[in-house]
């Protein structure tokens, strides 16, 4: 079973648990000034296919963000989420969004915890995230495995 958790954004945090092993990281989807605006979505799609080829993905959970600081960030999020959902539909992979506050409350005890608190909490579980995006994806994995969604996965 390959569960993929994702913190969608220009820097996308991800975590994959398969066969008892966990790998995680951050994927930089920002482009350069010579690329078209749609290239981040092309790169994200290619990355999903690459991950699925390495280890078949059997379920995807992503941070369901309801508000963004800026208009452009919201557009990027929506586009990447659409790519993710399309990928899952084409491969018959179940997917679900989980509210950010639920994840933060589970991992830190506080629904409005800052980035530093989430990183610190994830480190207490034995992980070493490189940035807050990777920490968010790991926190989401912990939430779905040990929280209210665990029964549905097992």
From TrEMBL:
Concerning InterPro entries, the annotation shows: RNaseH-like_sf (IPR012337), RNaseH_sf (IPR036397)
GO MF terms, alphabetically ordered? nucleic acid binding
Q: What is this protein called?
A: Holliday junction resolvasome RuvABC endonuclease subunit
* Naturally occurring in which organism (per UniProt): Bradyrhizobium stylosanthis
């Amino acid at each position: 079973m390959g569960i993929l958790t994702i913190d969608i954004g220009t820097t996308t945090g991800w975590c994959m648990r398969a066969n008892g092993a966990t790998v995680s990281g951050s994927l930089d989807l920002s482009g350069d000034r010579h690329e078209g605006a749609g290239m981040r979505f092309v790169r994200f799609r290619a990355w999903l296919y690459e991950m699925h080829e390495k280890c078949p993905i059997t379920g995807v959970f992503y941070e369901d963000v309801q508000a963004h600081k800026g208009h452009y960030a919201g557009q990027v999020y929506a586009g990447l989420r659409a790519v993710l959902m399309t990928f899952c539909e084409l491969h018959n992979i179940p997917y679900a969004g989980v509210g950010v506050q639920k994840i933060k409350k589970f991992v830190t005890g506080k629904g409005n915890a800052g980035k530093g608190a989430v990183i610190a909490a994830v480190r207490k579980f034995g992980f070493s995230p490189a940035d807050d995006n990777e920490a968010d994806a790991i926190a989401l994995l912990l939430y779905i495995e040990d929280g209210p969604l665990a029964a549905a996965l097992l």
